[in-house]
């Protein structure tokens, strides 16, 4: 929909050059791996990173909601579900206090940065990048939660 509505394409050079958003990611260094046995030994670190990333994405999703007003209800639902998942995963961590949640000042600074480009071409690219990286983050989150379903008893 982004590509059609705003002519934002995957291989746009401007899009690649402007990707300085520092969006949350889960990497091998964070304990996320495709190998189930290796994942088990790093699961605490990975769960902390996932929960922290989901909390961080809340500010980005709020930007999407304000920018992509035609999908306001869908983004609001997505944001709420993401918040609930972040809370659930945080409770799965042995020490939930170790989950890093952006404070109000950090969120406000990020909101200001995002809003400064909202009505420009860069704002459209930013929206696309956020949605793309959120999708990737959620794919890894789903994989990690599936692994955990095999080792822990929880309902998510």
UniProtKB/TrEMBL annotation:
It comes from the Eukaryota. One of its GO terms (molecular function) is interleukin-6 receptor binding. It comes from Xiphorhynchus elegans. Cytokine with a wide variety of biological functions in immunity, tissue regeneration, and metabolism. Binds to IL6R, then the complex associates to the signaling subunit IL6ST/gp130 to trigger the intracellular IL6-signaling pathway. The interaction with the membrane-bound IL6R and IL6ST stimulates 'classic signaling', whereas the binding of IL6 and soluble IL6R to IL6ST stimulates 'trans-signaling'. Alternatively, 'cluster signaling' occurs when membrane-bound IL6:IL6R complexes on transmitter cells activate IL6ST receptors on neighboring receiver cells. GO terms for biological process: acute-phase response; cell differentiation; immune response; positive regulation of receptor signaling pathway via JAK-STAT. InterPro entries: 4_helix_cytokine-like_core, IL-6-like, IL-6/GCSF/MGF. This is Interleukin-6. SMART domains: IL6. Belongs to the IL-6 superfamily. The gene is Il6. GO terms for cellular component: extracellular space; interleukin-6 receptor complex. PANTHER family: INTERLEUKIN-6. Keywords: Acute phase. It holds the Pfam family IL6.
